[in-house]
Each structure stands twice: as structure tokens, then as C-alpha cells.
């Protein structure tokens, strides 16, 4: 699946005159609704989903660009659209620049991984400031589409993310901490970090630092198939975690994980 295959020609608008974020989201909902994929989805429902996503955090990522997006239950395929706003609108961007280019996504709720890869592909495409400016300057929808497609040949399905888990191990005993860390350090394809921790009692009761109020946390990103091996290695040191004091382990499945850390 290529990024350019998901761009819907009927969902492109150059030269919007919207002058605030609320109007931009309304225009996006209107544009998106023009795609046959969303013909049975009410425009109001699309707008509400976009607004709900914005309440979690602004989707502007700097340099005059925003990627409003949402996932919806009644959507079977991805809808990607474009809009330019030559005068710009405030979009709560970290760099405080007005947003002048919008790339929006309406996604199926059940395709989390593809949605994340699509966001990543669009973000990478829009790293090119010259391309962004070319799109903003496009005089009409056809020119805007052509500028985007020139750079949007990336295949978003060619690399399937490795399924990983986040494992956090809180340890109060320094000897046990070192043994666990040494054991996990030899585990293949595992990224480890260590942070110092303190219990709330240290602050609530103004207690001096001690073994009872402090500890360390090992954070491990491991391939999902290795999670049981992580637990086995920990319990070979601590005994059954169900009966262990001074050590706490949590495991969470990650929807998306990419990259690696140096040693």
C-alpha cells in the first residue's frame, strides 16, 4: 500500500479562507464526506471524531503543517486529503507558527498499526520544507495534488513493525537490581534503560533517602515472544513474583515501537 494510493482527489482544497481552527476542522469534515468511502458516515460524526482527537493534543507538528486525524468504527479504508490555508491559522503548534498546510486522515478504527505507519510516512514526506512551500503555493487542487504525489511514493506496508512489549521492573534491593540487570543485558534484541525511583513516603513524610524509600526501575523493550523469558530470568533471581517483596514487574503490549538505543 503506497501513500499516494490513499490520497482521495475529491478531498483536496487549495486556498481555504478559514480563519480559525474550528472552521478548519469543519472544512476537513466536509471534504472527507465527499469520498465514497465515507458516504454512510455523517459529516457531524467525522467532525466530532476530529475534535475529540484534538482535545488529546494538537496535531500541528511545526513548520506550518498539521496532520489532523481520527479513527472511526464505521470506516473500512483510509481517506487522506489535503488543504492549504495561505493566510494561516493558529493550531497550537509548538513552534507557534500558523498552519498553512493540512494533510488529514480518516482511518478505520481496527487498523492501528497501518494508521501509525501512515502518520509516520506523511511526517517524513513533509520534512522537506521546499515541498511544503510548493504545496502551500499551489494555485489549485490539481497543482496541490501533483506536488504531494511527486514526493509521496513511499510504501507504508513494506516494513511490518516488530511486535514488542514494554517491561518495567521496580527493584528496591541494590544486589537484586544488579543481578536482574546483568541477566537481561544478555537477552537478544532488547533495549534497556535504568532510572532512579523513590516511593511517595519519601515526600509525604519528609523521610531521608533509604532502601525503604528508594529503588531503581529497569525499563526493557523486548520482542513480544521473549516476554516470558524475561519473567523467567527475573524469577530465577527473586523466586515467584507473586510472593516476592521489593520487586514489582509490569508488562504492556506496545501498539508501535521502532528504532533502537545505543549501548
What does this structure look like?
It is a single chain. The radius of gyration is 24 Å and the shape is elongated. The strands form 2 sheets. Strands 1, 2, 3, 4, 5 and 6 form a 6-stranded mixed beta sheet that branches. The model has no long low-confidence stretch (mean pLDDT 87). α5 (129-136) runs antiparallel to α6. The longest helix has 14 residues, at 43-56. With 263 residues, the protein is an alpha/beta fold. A hairpin with a 2-residue loop joins β2 and β3. It is built from 9 helices and 10 strands. The chain has helices at residues 3-6, 21-33, 43-56, 112-125, 129-136, 141-151, 174-185, 201-204, 227-238; strands spanning 7-13, 60-62, 65-66, 69-72, 79-89, 99-108, 164-171, 191-198, 214-223, 247-253. The two termini are 35 Å apart.
Rg value: 24 Å
Largest sheet: 6 strands, mixed
- The stretches of 5 or more residues where confidence is low (pLDDT under 50) are none
CATH structural architecture of the largest domain: 3-Layer(aba) Sandwich
Order of helices and strands: HEHHEEEEEHHHEHEHEHE
Tell me the count of domains. 2
Q: Specify the overall morphology.
A: elongated
How much of the sequence lies in strands comes to 25-35%
**Secondary structure: helix percent:** 25-40%
Amino acid at each position: 500500500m503506497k501513500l499516494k494510493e490513499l490520497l482521495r482527489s475529491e478531498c483536496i482544497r487549495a486556498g481555504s479562507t478559514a480563519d480559525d481552527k474550528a472552521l478548519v476542522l469543519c472544512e476537513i469534515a466536509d471534504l472527507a464526506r465527499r469520498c465514497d468511502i465515507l458516504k454512510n458516515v455523517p459529516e457531524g460524526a467525522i467532525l466530532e471524531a476530529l475534535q475529540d482527537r484534538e482535545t488529546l493534543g494538537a496535531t500541528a507538528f511545526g513548520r506550518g503543517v498539521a496532520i489532523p486525524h481520527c479513527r472511526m468504527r464505521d470506516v473500512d479504508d483510509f481517506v487522506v486529503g489535503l488543504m492549504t490555508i495561505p493566510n494561516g491559522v493558529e493550531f497550537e503548534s509548538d513552534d507557534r507558527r500558523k498552519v498553512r498546510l493540512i494533510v488529514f486522515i480518516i482511518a478505520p478504527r481496527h487498523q492501528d498499526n497501518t494508521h501509525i505507519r501512515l502518520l509516520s510516512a506523511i511526517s517524513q514526506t513533509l520534512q522537506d520544507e521546499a515541498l511544503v512551500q510548493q504545496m502551500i503555493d499551489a494555485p489549485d487542487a490539481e497543482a496541490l495534488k501533483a506536488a504531494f504525489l511527486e514526493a509521496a511514493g513511499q510504501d507504508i506496508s513494506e516494513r511490518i513493525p516488530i511486535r514488542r512489549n514494554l517491561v518495567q521492573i521496580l527493584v528496591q534491593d541494590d544486589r537484586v537490581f544488579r543481578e536482574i540487570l546483568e541477566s537481561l543485558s544478555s537477552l537478544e534484541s532488547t533495549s534497556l534503560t535504568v532510572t532512579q525511583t523513590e516511593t511517595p513516603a519519601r515526600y509525604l513524610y519528609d523521610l531521608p533517602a533509604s532502601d525503604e524509600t528508594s529503588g531503581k526501575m529497569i525499563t526493557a523493550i523486548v520482542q513480544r515472544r521473549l516476554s516470558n523469558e524475561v519473567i523467567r530470568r527475573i524469577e530465577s533471581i527473586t523466586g515467584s513474583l507473586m510472593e516476592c517483596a521489593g520487586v514489582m514487574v509490569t508488562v504492556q503490549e506496545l501498539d508501535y515501537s521502532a528504532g533502537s538505543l545505543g549501548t
